[in-house]
């Protein structure tokens, strides 16, 4: 059986990474082959090396993700996260660089895993890029860049209140998003997420629920997709 792609989307600070971890652990306890990762090409340096180690049992080889950006390719990190470059004038170039990295990750790493029957639990799949990049770039352009990557088999949207996301982003110690540093931007992005969720028939989970409640709702949807018993 081919593996399935399960994406979890939402604003910064929505708890996507936590839900990814919980879901992967439960699927593995139930004997499923599963790997989790952040889809966009952001796992550089030590984080990338850790991810490679995690995926070794599946004979997966990362290319772009395992580059030590601080010594060889600093462009992606600087290009995406500096205040001066993340704006409308540079948006198409930023989007193209991001999309190029994501295409390489999918075709060289993720597609072989799927074909080997590994289920992928993914944070920031390309649906998220539609939302964030279309803040400045037309949605049709973003979709065109990602057209060779399939839609997820199950897409979950954690619908977190914009004000909560804004405050969590302000308190982050692992890097703050310039775009999400403005509350009005956060509210606009949240509205785009809600519109996309409706358009793509994403499963919407109330981000204000307790962690375990959110996990139970997400797992129920995943269990239905994979045709397994929704056990705890």
Describe the protein in words:
This protein has a single domain, classed as 3-Layer(aba) Sandwich (Rossmann fold). It has 9 helices and 5 strands, in the order E-H-E-H-H-H-E-H-H-E-H-H-E-H. It has helices at 16-29, 45-55, 75-81, 91-115, 126-133, 139-145, 162-170, 183-199, 211-226, and strands at 5-10, 34-38, 119-123, 154-159, 203-206. The protein has a 5-stranded parallel sheet with strand order 2-3-1-4-5, with helices on both faces. Helix 5 crosses helix 8 (183-199). The protein is globular and about 45 Å long. The protein starts with a strand and ends in a 6-residue tail after the last helix.
Shape: globular
CATH superfamily grouping:
P-loop containing nucleotide triphosphate hydrolases
Q: CATH topology, what is it called?
A: Rossmann fold
The major pleated sheet works out as: 5 strands, parallel
Low-confidence stretches: 41-45, 60-81
In angstroms, what separates the terminal alpha carbons?
24 Å
Strand content: 5-15%
Radius of gyration: 17 Å
CATH hierarchy: architecture = 3-Layer(aba) Sandwich
Number of domains: 1
Q: Total strand count, please?
A: 5
Coarse structural class: alpha/beta
Q: In sequence order, what are the helices and strands, one letter per element?
A: EHEHHHEHHEHHEH
- Assembly classification: single chain
Question: How many alpha or pi helices?
Answer: 9
Write down the CATH class.
Alpha Beta
- Helical fraction: 40-55%
Strand order of the largest sheet: 2-3-1-4-5
List keywords for this structure.
232 residues; alpha/beta; Rossmann fold; 11% strand
């Amino acid at each position: 059986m081919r593996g399935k792609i399960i994406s979890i989307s939402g604003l910064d600070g929505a708890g996507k990474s936590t839900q990814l971890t919980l879901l992967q652990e439960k699927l593995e306890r139930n004997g499923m082959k599963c790997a989790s990762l952040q889809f966009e090409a952001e796992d550089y340096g030590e984080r990338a090396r850790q991810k490679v180690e995690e995926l070794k049992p599946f004979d997966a080889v990362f290319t772009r993700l395992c580059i030590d950006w601080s010594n060889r390719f600093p462009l992606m990190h600087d290009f995406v996260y500096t205040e001066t470059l993340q704006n409308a004038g540079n948006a198409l170039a930023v989007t193209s660089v991001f999309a190029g990295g994501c295409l390489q990750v999918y075709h060289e790493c993720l597609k072989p895993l799927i074909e080997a029957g590994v289920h992928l639990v993914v944070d920031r799949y390309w649906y998220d890029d539609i939302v964030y990049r279309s803040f400045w770039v037309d949605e049709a352009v973003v979709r065109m860049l990602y057209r060779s990557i399939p839609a997820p088999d199950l897409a979950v949207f954690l619908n977190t209140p914009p004000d909560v996301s804004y405050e969590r982003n302000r308190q982050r110690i692992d890097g703050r998003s310039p775009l999400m540093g403005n509350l009005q931007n956060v509210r606009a992005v949240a509205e785009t997420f809600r519109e996309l969720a409706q358009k793509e028939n994403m499963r919407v989970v109330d981000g204000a629920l307790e962690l375990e409640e959110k996990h139970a709702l997400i797992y129920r949807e995943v269990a239905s997709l994979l045709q397994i018993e929704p056990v705890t």
